[in-house]
Amino acid sequence: MSKDVKKVVLAYSGGLDTSIILKWLRQAYDCEVVTFTADLGQGEELEPARKRAEMLGIKEIHIEDLREEFVRDFVFPMFRANALYEGVYLLGTSIARPLIAKRLVEIAEMTGADAIAHGATGKGNDQVRFELSAYALNPSIRVIAPWREWDLQSRTKLIEFAEKNQIPVPKDKRGEAPFSVDANLLHTSSEGKVLEDPAIEAPDYVYQRTVDPIDAPNTPETITVGFEKGDAVSVNREKLSPATLLAKLNELGGKHGIGRLDLVENRFVGMKSRGIYETPGGTILLAAHRGIESITLDRGAAHLKDEIMPRYAELIYNGFWFSPEREMLQALIDKSQDYVTGEVTLKLYKGSASVIGRFSPYSLYSEDLVTFEEGTGTYDHHDAEGFIKLNGLRLRTYGARRLRLGR
């Protein structure tokens, strides 16, 4: 293990694992440790993290409220693409990692640190996301991943290390935790332990942000979401900042049991993993955004977006937010949003967010063209005959050959 590291910036949650990592870094590398704790809307008080860091002898402690930046510069661009990994996952954990990595690299430069460190395990996706982002932003940065270096590979060994080094161990950490949780303003992710058998339904206590749809209000609630150039800007015609707007949608969605997902996904490292996700506000936002796009995007543009979306989502999931290909796709997606402005009305009811109305000053929808009543004559029904004949020419030729050959 190299001893040339003098100072490390650690992504620090204040929990047991990262407190152990903090102490281990000082012992293994004989280095100074700077802590960085990000408020991404996880709903936890962050001052205890400062106190634990101080208790462990840390002099440079950075705690930052990144909620607005998180939603404005990461969540909203992703939602312009309607991104879903494997068709269903709204990428709540994935999209948070590049922002954390960005600040780790920036703080390392600001404090003169030689390296950054994270607490992601060697089996998961987060190690990839943190490190690919860091290398894209600072090609010469050194990344320390303790879970790939140390021999503390069990909960028992971690607790023994903590007790030996006077690191307080919460009582609920002395046994096997029922599951692990990652949370931010976009979602809550739960995995491991009681969730590891995908054949068994997740216990009710796993869900933290949403009521059971069965217990949700029996009366539907109607809301409106306003958009400007693809980004949500208002709820019920009240202008809100990005983070405040998402928090409001979370409140509404959680009350109605919206946004639950039980998923077995394919991790980038090659294994399958079962997770329980709650994304109440994001689920509403996705439905609303697709609703406003349905009247403002040309068919070709809309279908092209749907074609590239899986690739875009996979790039985010796999940790390539700062890659040139993601940036290229983002430029295309953002161009498509020039006229995605207007208002969508949704009905929230027992786990569903249904679009029931949409309006835009830039709407491409024409009642005159689609009406079953007599229109103004802008569409000639006879034109369809030649259209069908030309499109059917190759099929008639193909069919004639099949009949000729008796197949």
Q: Quick gist of this model?
A:
The chain has 407 residues and is of the alpha/beta class. The chain is built from twelve helices and 14 strands. A hairpin with a 2-residue loop joins strand 13 (342-349) and strand 14.
Structure description:
With 407 residues, the chain is α/β, with parallel strands linked by helices. The protein has two domains: 7-79 and 91-175, HUPs (Rossmann fold, 3-Layer(aba) Sandwich); 181-297 and 339-359, Argininosuccinate synthetase, chain A, domain 2 (Alpha-Beta Complex). Helices cover 41% and strands 19% of the residues. The chain contains twelve helices and 14 strands. The strands form three sheets. The protein has a five-stranded parallel sheet with strand order 3-2-1-4-5, sandwiched between helices. α7 packs across α8 and α9 packs antiparallel against α10.
